[in-house]
Amino acid sequence: RVIDVRRNVGMVFQNPDNQIVANVVEDDVAFAPENLGVAPDEIRRRVDEALGQVGMYDLRQHAPHLLSGGQKQRVAIAGVIAMEPEVLVLDEPSAGLDPQGREELLANIRAFNRERGTTVVLVSHSMEEIARNVDRIVVLSDGKVYMEGAPKQVFARAHKLEQVGLDVPQVTKVAAALRARGLDIDPAVYTVEALEQKLLTLRGGASPC
Questions:
Q1: 119: phi then psi, degrees, rounded to nearest 5
Q2: How far apart are CA 110 and CA 112, in angstroms?
Q3: Alpha-carbon torsion 192, 194, 198, 204, what sign?
Q4: Distance of CA 206 to CAs 70, 142, 180, 192, Å?
Q5: Contact call for residues 70 and 101 (beta carbons, < 8 A)
Q6: Residue 7 and residue 197: Cα distance in Å, rounded?
């Protein structure tokens, strides 16, 4: 199905300063729906809802340039959410954020995906970030699809990822090392929780590890 890209695909750039255009947070979030011809009452609803979705409602009257990097990124995301797109594309959304800010931002994105059912395309070189936030991976190399599949399928082919300068999550490396030492562990484990559960199962069902 062909869709109207301008109306139905929203993109958030790596640097939020490249897309923040207004002097007040709520005005910036309203910018896109205004340009799409959305009615004023509907714009107000969308702006309030989008700012609440990213945890920025209380700062709606603030000047964007006085916000932190993570807060600016949330404003940029809210501006795109207010478009109510069918597809949300995020280009390295957590770049430059500290670990807490990164997790808070990604938690907002996960909540948005769950509540709206909107397709989210996350562009990232961080395999840990990818592992915790997606259910399908597409690896690109020289502008072409190099590999695709569920995270478990992709991370099981670590050597293929290394050939294009990518890596696997650290926990996957730990799982592979434990398997090499004789433990019955899937080398394609890619989350800490999954590895922890497997180790607890082995500890309960066999000799302690």
A1: -70, 125
A2: 5
A3: positive
A4: 46, 47, 18, 21
A5: yes
A6: 43
SS3 159: helix
Provide the residue type at 48 as one letter: D
Half-sphere exposure of 108 (CA within 13 A, CB side): 25
Torsion angle in degrees (nearest 10) through CA of 200, 201, 205, 209 = -40
Tens-place pLDDT, residues 50-101 = 999 888 999 999 999 999 888 998 899 999 999 999 899 999 888 777 888 7
Q: How far apart are CA 33 and CA 52, in angstroms?
A: 17
Using CA atoms in the order 42, 35, 117, 132, what is the torsion angle rounded to 10 degrees?
A: -130
Residue 24 CA, chain-centre distance (Å), reads 25
Residues 193 and 131: beta-carbon distance below 8 Å: no
Task: Note the pTM of the prediction, 2 decimals.
Answer: 0.78
